[in-house]
Amino acid sequence: MEKYQNVDAKSGTSKIVWFIVALFVVTALIVCGSMYFSYNNQEISLRKQAEAQRGKVEGVFDTMWKTISQQAQVSNEYKDAFKEIYPDLIAGRYSQGNGSLMKWIQEANPEFDTSLYKQLMQTIEVQRLQFQKSQERMLDLIREHETLCETYPGTWFVKNKTPIEYIIISSTKSKLTMETGVEDEVDLFR
User: Fold this and answer.
1) Please, how many CA atoms are within 13 Å of residue 167, restricted to the half-sphere of its CB?
2) CA dist 82 to 91, 105, 121, 125, Å?
3) pLDDT tens digits for range 58-105
4) Coil, helix or strand for 97?
């Protein structure tokens, strides 16, 4: 009888061990499956955000270009109109010959208003800053995506590791400076 009790005890212990192993395997599969879905969902989310940001960068650039261009056109039109009417105003005032030169010294003459140019410069600064921030956001999304795809444990689970492609919008001068590492031009009005 002791022999059968010993076999039952071994069988019971063996069942517990198999139950623990099965529980561990099932738990590991659930954790790995959860990580797989979590990392892939995160990758998809970053990719979608980057696509949306690319559209935003284009929209900000378009707004910037149109706003600056149109404000410059208004300023230029004002300058041309002022240039056209100023000589006639002055000629009409002082051509009478009745001491009008003294009136000219005492009168306030029409002045060219530079506020449009100040506003244009402020607009350029604000629009450029907004454009820069939208590009920086795009680069941050790319960095987050690359970090997710290249670091552990994400690299084991992410199935789409295709880099998000984006060409930074910049000037020829800036690109040349980055290539050469040299920027010597300091004369702004050359």
Assistant:
1) 4
2) 14, 21, 20, 26
3) 999 999 999 988 988 888 888 887 777 777 666 655 555 555 555 555
4) coil
Helix (H, G, I), strand (E, B) or coil at 84: helix
The pTM assigned to this predicted structure is: 0.70
Query: Do 116 and 74 meet the contact criterion of CB atoms below 8 Å apart?
Result: yes
Residues in the chain: 190
Closest CA to 68 of 130, 136, 125: 125
Average pLDDT over residues 127-155: 95
* d(C-alpha 176, C-alpha 171), whole Å: 9
- Please give the Cα distance from 125 to 123 (Å, whole number): 5
Q: Which residues contact 57 (CB under 8 A, 6 or more apart)?
A: 131, 134, 135, 138, 169
Q: What is the pLDDT of residue 8?
A: 59
